[in-house]
Amino acid sequence: MHELERRLGTPLFEREGRGMVPTSAGRALAARATTVLAEARAALDDVRLAAEGLAGRLTVTFAGSGINGPLGGALGRLRREMPRVELRLVESFNDAEMSGGVLDGRFDIAVQRLPTRDPRLVARSWWREPLSLFLPAAHPLAHGAGACRRC
Fold it and tell me: 54 versus 63: which is more confidently predicted?
């Protein structure tokens, strides 16, 4: 009896003529072994992808309408190019909470309007959002000197 058969407590093969054929236990083991080997290969692929930054989880917090700027397009590209990355989006209107969440690990990235004041964080300007100014027509800034030239 082979070592594996001894450990399992049952024969996996039996002699038939000049060859060997699997027993019912051997066929059951072969069917499961295929699945186990496929799972082991998948696990190795998952580890490799995670090590390369192509799998895992990315948690992004953003301020309300921030999703309407370049963030929406960037997240769409991320989903297409890295489908194995689990994307978690958290909307927040509290800049201190967003910055604090990056520091304590709740968030990987914060997309927020106000610059951070915490020296442990680095802020990068990503996008400039155009804003409109609405004034009563009779307001001194609505016409003439000091008026908006691009309006």
Answer: 63
